[in-house]
Here is the input.
Amino acid sequence: MSAQISRLPTSFAFGTFLLIPERQLLLESGIVVRMGGRAFDLLTVLVQRHGEVVSKRELLALVWPGLVVEESNLKVNMTAIRRVLGEDTGAPRYIATVVGRGYRFVAPVQHSACQSGPHVPAVPRSGCPTPGAKRIFGREEMIHAVLSDLEHGRLVSLVGPGGAGKTTVALEVSNRAASVLKKAALFVDLSMAEEPSQVPEAIVNVIGQGDGVGARSRLPDGGLDDPHILLVLDNCEHLIGAVAQCVDQVLARTRNLKIILTSREPICIRGERVRRLHGLGLPPCADGLKAAEAMAYPALQMFVDRAAKHSFSFRLDDANAPAVAAICQRLDGLALAIERVAQRVGTLGVDGLLDHLDRRFHMLDGYHEGPERHRTLTAAVETSYVLLSPTEQATMRRVSAFAGLFSLDAACAISGAAGADRATVIEDIAGLVSKSLLTTESCDGEMLYRQTHVIRAFALDKLAGDGEQTEVRRRAIALGELDVPHPGWEVLSGIAGSDGRNSEPGGREDQRDVA
Here is the structure.
């Protein structure tokens, strides 16, 4: 800590928190909250100067004196502070960002002389944010499975597509870990980390031993092997190699620490137990579904719960149950997508929602709460797409020609016509499965593949944007004329543009089964 930061023998009270800078302590309701060293120093500066705007340059100079530090380090630590203070969404209660200038601590602060030190419990309070007041649907079996995995192993990876609810499950597991595993969780959000060197820095900041910056950051030799700690690493996919290296080192150096991580693909190291999160449970058929039957499925339970919160007039009944089921099917049971769509029941109605979903994927965009990657469904898929290799991106676009299941031969045929060799396409398909962008299904001993409706709609937009739609259509028709047996093959009469209609002049409205 820089000598420029005042170390007054005082405590600062705000909300339910008490900050004691001289003792490097932050407490909530009398219980110690674990926080990284750099994050603690940043919070101290802001609290001591509450009401003032403290510039980013000044914060960097005070907390990292004598070091050249990227602004991203400041963002990572500010995110960690806000997590600890419970500021995930909505208007800031404690720290406000002053655009173009810096940060200001906005909550009322009382400071007084600090007397005796507080009792430090054997099991510290979790540094994880709570899952919130929203109900969790259809994940109880998964939560119990992960807790069981942690009892018998040390590393569990929650893997699935964006918007499936991986973070929600991880937070609920960490919330129950105190009573089931006698462990408190420390939460590391890696979504703001941009460089591999920031992964170990984010970890050491959270466990309270962050002394390094950038390339100087390294995992500490001691202090990690606390039998009472569960480490939660969230949003790992964009730095998967660095996360794998760090986790491997941490597990090798410790005997007691346990780790949960969330990612769109496994980190593939020894000892990893992978739990794949798919969409919430759906009825096999929407036609003729009754309301009582519909409420047996988690996807529809969530839709009804969220819709009722935004429209007091909404009620699930036998008349609208089939349409609600069809909506959830088009959204593949993805929790984020259901949440977004259900919020519009009050303005479009159930039938209007279903009709609009068939025409315009981007209706799911334009929200302003939650993390950046979840504010639009386009962004949720885009974050996965940009991490793909160029050949994986091309394969993802081209297999959107299939409306349902397709074989490996079919994928190779449509990509091979564009000059891609079979070995590359096979590797691409394997990569897309690993990264949760294709689902698999075994049929008569053969592995078949499918893009979910949401991912396929995104890929079709990319196909049109890259000017490939005419060529892919030509290949599809040519392969159909050659009578190539491809399971689930759709010989396209036209590939929809972004407005959901046939792109040919005078063409009929497209009847593709896409979101």
